[in-house]
Amino acid sequence: VPAPAALPTPCLCHSTSAESPPLQCMLTSCWIKGLGSNMTIAAVNGKGDFFGSYHMAVTATMNEIQASPLQGPQHCMNQKSQPTFGFTIKRSFSDATTAFAGQCFVDAGGKETLTTMWLLREAVGSLEEDWKATR
């Protein structure tokens, strides 16, 4: 899903004065997971909402993997915060939706790391099959 044409000022989670350190934990970037999946977030608006795409490196389906749209919110806190965020992915190549919740951490060297937990929901044919739809 492309980002809206006119986005409000980016969500500044840190001060931007000349004395302040560079902005950190701004989700606007390309992020790579350990197994090679990646997500690209084009912009975070003034309310903390963002849009982007997610490209999975591995999947259990036999379908060709395609980039999938994502959207979600990020909490913007004070300069000392390491904000939480969440997003959902509508998979373009299967009848599944994935939800992620996480937090951005900055180590003493300034390296940013996103940690997340995820929940995958696949479509099933009946209520009796509901037990196998969520991972």
TrEMBL record:
It is found in: Secreted. The lineage of its organism: Eukaryota, Metazoa, Chordata, Craniata, Vertebrata. Disulfide bonds join 25-104. Pfam families: Avidin (PF01382). The keyword Transcription does not apply. One of its GO terms (cellular component) is extracellular region. This is Avidin. Forms a strong non-covalent specific complex with biotin. Keywords: Biotin, Disulfide bond, Glycoprotein, Secreted, Signal. Homotetramer.
